[in-house]
Amino acid sequence: MENVFVFDHPLIQHKLTIIRDETTGAKEFRELVEEVSMLMAYEVTRNLPLEDVEINTPICRAKCKMISGKKLGIVPILRAGLGMVNGMLKLIPAAKVGHIGLYRDPETLKPVEYYCKLPPDVHERELILLDPMLATGGSASAAIDFLKKKGAANIKLMCLIAAPEGIEAVHKRHPGVEIYTAAVDQCLNDHAYIVPGLGDAGDRLFGTK
């Protein structure tokens, strides 16, 4: 699939299996989501531009590499996306963090924005949109719509698990957005849950039902 990157690293796959397990409690679930997010951050940021700089090591003057002033932004979709933020910030602590809150209108079934707080220079930043589950793709597509309306031009979507239906829906509306995931599962069930999936990510992160 074009513009879809699936991470098959053994550490990511091992931790994802424990995350999926219904016996994994909220504390361990939160810790593992953070760890997997940190591991995925390595790959999501792989193509950041580098520049040559000169520094003094304890031995001599040396020419080395540093990230070339690229401004990054992390935008979790509330509430489940919050579980992925700390893992990302451990690797890129200078990134600014925005938030997007969405709910589904019970009559139209369309996502409605109830909260949006973004860095003021969002148009200058490469944004990484975070949501553990890409199911129908409705929330992710709506969030990307909102980011673009605020001036964002460079957006990536990062999730733990994606359904083929969600990938198709996002790319139908936003074909240029790259999707990064640890797994592409089989399908959605009649209740729009990913199969086999991991259940409701928000409930499992925060111990709610």
From TrEMBL:
SUPFAM superfamilies: PRTase-like
GO cellular component, one term: cytoplasm
Example of a GO MF term: magnesium ion binding
Cofactor annotation comment: Binds 1 Mg(2+) ion per subunit. The magnesium is bound as Mg-PRPP.
Family (UniProt): Belongs to the UPRTase family.
Catalysis performed (reactions): UMP + diphosphate = 5-phospho-alpha-D-ribose 1-diphosphate + uracil
Signal sequence annotation: none
Pfam family, one: UPRTase
Listed cofactors: Mg(2+)
Designated name of the protein: Uracil phosphoribosyltransferase
Amino acids binding 5-phospho-alpha-D-ribose 1-diphosphate: R79, R104, D131, P132, M133, L134, A135, T136, G137, G138, S139, D200
Record key words, sorted: Allosteric enzyme, Glycosyltransferase, GTP-binding, Magnesium, Nucleotide-binding, Transferase
EC number(s) reported in the record: 2.4.2.9
Regulation of its function: Allosterically activated by GTP.
Keyword Glycoprotein annotated: no
Lineage: superkingdom: Bacteria
Pathway where this protein functions: Pyrimidine metabolism; UMP biosynthesis via salvage pathway; UMP from uracil: step 1/1
CDD domains linked to this entry: PRTases_typeI
Organism: Koleobacter methoxysyntrophicus
Domain Phosphoribosyltransferase positions: 6-208
Residue stretches in coiled coil: none
HAMAP family, A to Z: Upp_B
Protein task: Catalyzes the conversion of uracil and 5-phospho-alpha-D-ribose 1-diphosphate (PRPP) to UMP and diphosphate.
GO terms for biological process, alphabetical: UMP salvage; uracil salvage
Binding positions for uracil per the UniProt entry: I194, G199, D200, A201
